[in-house]
Amino acid sequence: MHLLLIEDDAEAARFLAKGLRESGYVVDIASDGREGLFRATEGLYDLIIADRQLPHFDGLSIVAMLRKNGKHTPVLILSALGSVDDRIEGLRAGGDDYLTKPFAFGELLARIEALLRRGNQPEVTTRIRIADLELDLLGRKVTRAGTPIDVTSKEFQLLEFLARRAGQVVTRTMLLEAVWDLHFDPQTNVIDVHISRLRAAIDKGFERPLLHTVRGAGYVLRDGD
Amino acid sequence: MATDARHPGGTLRLSSARLALLYAMLVTVFTSSVLLSVYLLTRNALEREISAVVRAEVDDLSDDLRLGGIAQVAATLRLRADSWGRTGAVFLLADPNFRPVAGNLTAWPRDVVPIGREALESAMVEFDIDAHERGESVLHPVEARIEHLANGYWLLVGADTSERLNVLRRFGLATAWGIALTALCVWLLGAAYARRTARRVRAYATTCETIMQGDLTQRLAVDGSHDEFDALAVAVNAMLDRIEQQTTTLRTAFDSIAHDLRTPLYRMRVRLEEAQLRAGLPTEAHELIAPALHDLDRVQRTLATLLQIARTEASGVTTHDEHVDLAALAANMVELYAPGMLASGLHVALDAPIAAPVTGNRQLLAQLVTNLLENALKYVPAGGHVRVSVRNSPGGVSLSIADDGPGIAAVDRAAALRPFVRVGDAPAHASGSGLGLSLAAAVARLHGAQLTLGDNAPGLVVHCEFPAAARREAPAGVAQVR
């Protein structure tokens, strides 16, 4: 996977690129808006990570110009402007996701993965299977090893979000955004309690756990460690 | 919010109409007294004139009597008899038995037969005479003087006062009409002026409300008449220009602060994370890095909250046009917090039976509810109860979050809404920045609501009263989260 990172802060760019390369991505760096726009227009990238405040062209203008030229490469906007209105502005400009600095590297990685996989999800799914866990998306029912499991409607939404991204790390903020439509971080770890309840429901009494915690990043639903 | 500020029309109209009425009354009283004085003076002058004319005639006739005797008087009177119709003068010379000798009366008037000499000398008498005009009999009032002549003859000299009465009546009528018309004109002018004043003040009030709702680009209308209202509007507009300029400066400053502080924080985090990832790092180093990252997150959250408060307070709101169902929002938030609260031994109940639409920013409203729930989570001890209610009230939508925790003493409530203030004996594990209530209050203000802290006896109740959006009711049950 080929990524373009447009970031004028050299040190941050170096660290992000290093981390992304270690995670198996090929990364190009552009250090200002003009170079970034040029590379984004010319090159074939799977994803663009653009800082919002840049010399020459800011991140939002780059997204807007790309979209105007018919390029639909997913764009993740990084910004030191973190208010709700800034975020809405960023997404309205054509950005696919918006991350406020400072963020944990794990958060960035999870969001990149989610954006890259967004395109190749099966169109219509009515059933999801992970090992012996089965979700009936139409009947909103969960079974594990053939035994029905009682979950609340929010727990089902949580599980569905994790199951659709089985094998991918899902962060707390991603869950807050997707299940509760909240775009800010509460101070307490409310999500952790929901995950423990969900884990108690689907993993308790079974030898192989499916819902795992990824330290410093989030959670992942997968068969095996 | 004061209801008077929203509906200034009623009281204003009343006060300006009252002013117009008062002016009309004053003008009427002044005009009436002036015209009445003129009327009375005119009447007096006319009366004096008649009496002077009569006296002069009497003197003339007395001269005739002295020079030529009764015959001369009779001759003069006969000469003047023709002119009665023209001058309105009345003459009669009668013998001692009141039989007419000469003059323009056919008989001595019956009502003024003198009883004694003194009774008729000097004073004026009044009687009516029957005159024939165009075949009709018309009564004419007469004012006259009676002289008892030396030879026992009686002389009556008078004037027909019907003309004078006519003049006075017409004058009186004109005066009354004048007063009425003046009063009407003054009242109409006053009412028109009052309406204009009320309209302009109302227009100003409306504009000011729009501005208060966050549209700082609005200005008061200047109509170019250079009157005191224009002067006021120009001054207020200048003030608004200044405020708008300051707000822009503030917003820019907030953005710069956000950028300038977040960038070093970001780099710090990047370095710490890089260190954390470095292979072969001793465990002690990890034990230092993890809390440092935790602290960094806290600094960043505090900064974000502070900036959010500042931006919310200075906001020229443009994106706040979402229709938010506060009942559904509260249900969503209670659902999010219920498991965490249950784990802390708290019982949370939701009472939001019907849809409660408000206009605003969903994320900020969610932040408001979040902060209040987090406070409850922090301060209410295990075994406590938290109740979230959303109700449609007559004025809009009311949201209240009540608990039976330690509460906030009445004296501390105002201070508790200010940034960085933590009141009472906060439990040791409470790790808030003291910004939660402050941000909640700022969000409430942004939505035209006032956040108030009250006594739940025992505990705290936080109450917000929102103005309603276009209301649409949908049924829902009272949910109990266990």
Overview of the structural elements:
The complex is a heterodimer of chains A (225) and B (482). Chain A is 40% helix and 22% strand. Chain A is α/β, with parallel strands linked by helices and 225 residues long. Chain A folds into two domains: 2-118, 3-Layer(aba) Sandwich (Rossmann fold); 127-221, Winged helix-like DNA-binding domain superfamily/Winged helix DNA-binding domain (Arc Repressor Mutant, subunit A, Orthogonal Bundle). Chain A has a five-stranded parallel sheet, sandwiched between helices. In chain A, strands 6-7-8-9 form a four-stranded antiparallel sheet, covered by helices on one side. A three-stranded antiparallel sheet of chain A has the order 10-12-11, sandwiched between helices. In chain A, strand 1, helix 1 (10-22) and strand 2 (26-30) form a beta-alpha-beta unit. The radius of gyration of chain A is 19 Å and the shape is elongated. Chain A starts with a strand and ends with a strand. The model of chain A has no long low-confidence stretch (mean pLDDT 89). Chain B has 482 residues and is an alpha+beta fold. Chain B has a five-stranded antiparallel sheet. A five-stranded mixed sheet of chain B has the order 7-9-10-12-11. In chain B, a hairpin with a 5-residue loop joins strand 1 (89-94) and strand 2 (100-103). Among the domains of chain B are: 228-313, Orthogonal Bundle (Helix Hairpins), CATH 1.10.287; 322-467, Histidine kinase-like ATPase, C-terminal domain (Heat Shock Protein 90), CATH 3.30.565. Helices cover 56% and strands 17% of the residues of chain B. Classes of the chains: A alpha/beta (225), B alpha+beta (482).
